[in-house]
Amino acid sequence: MKCAAASLERMTSLSLLGLGAMGTALGRVWLAAGHSVTVWNRTRAKAEALTGATVADTAADAVAANQLVVLCLLDDASVGGTLDGADLAGRDVVNLTTGTPDEARARAAWVAERGGRLLDGGIMAVPSMIGEPDAGGYVLYSGDPAVFDTHQDVLAGVAGTRFVGADPGLAALHDVALLSAMDGMFAGVTHAFALLRRTDVPPTEFAPLLTGWLTAMAGAVGDMAERLQSGDFTTGVTSSLTMQAAGTATLERTATEQGVSTELLRPYHRLMDRHVAAGHGDEDGAGLVDLLRH
Ligand SMILES: NC(=O)c1ccc[n+]([C@@H]2O[C@H](COP(=O)([O-])OP(=O)(O)OC[C@H]3O[C@@H](n4cnc5c(N)ncnc54)[C@H](OP(=O)(O)O)[C@@H]3O)[C@@H](O)[C@H]2O)c1
Description:
By secondary structure, the chain is α/β, with parallel strands linked by helices. About 50% of the residues lie in helices and about 15% in strands.
């Protein structure tokens, strides 16, 4: 544990509600840094297991103990249920519970009605990355900038911080956008492993090829962003949708040959087909983004 004079000056007290896998990781790191942490968890045994923390009898007691109140619960409904009855006047509530943008906005208004200020957070890390600056984990924050400014040092002690705007919904929106992209990537990875499943190629031999290919293709994200920003979807296109849409038939025939379902591939291919049929075959993948908007 670091005990340098400079860090001692910045030690603070906070309350942490929710000691699941993520909350426990956060609590351990704040305690190890020398902060005074009051904890509450629905199942009390998990709170008592956090050595060095002060266990509050009720959620309201935990909220009353400190100005900075951090929540890391299952979902927005559990946040509402937990804070119901607590006095939030003068409290800075940092909600690290995953939720939707609208839930974050409604929760910010709900906290404000009760005299508190809300900063919403989306954790881009798994518990083992908490307190490990080199692991690359960070938390997206949005909402009251004053809450972020006041508590940034404490928050930065568990993971990197990225404030993305005063609209309380923005952290959740960024969080969900990143998670959705991850799901798309894993859909592709799932399909790729399935294609090789009935062969003698060991998955561990194929994995480095897959990682290398995905890493190389990730460069296209920046190109897509440039096109979306400029509105120019055709200049310099080298992998046109016409070419890609012709190739998708090969992907699907290969899946059929290997006895693999095309259910993960088809939705994306259908989107390409629609855009080509509408006369946009000279664009690349960036042109598909606005097709998804209702
Ligand atoms: N774990 C990860 O890899 C990860 C990564 C990024 C973000 N997150 C987010 O972090 C948050 C917590 O995740 P976790 O991994 O810690 O989940 P977890 O291990 O399942 O813990 C859930 C926590 O919520 C509490 N809880 C559930 N329902 C409740 C209710 N109705 N009222 C009060 N408390 C309730 C649980 O209390 P009990 O102990 O009594 O059940 C526990 O403290 C989630 O929003 C999750 O999306 C997690």
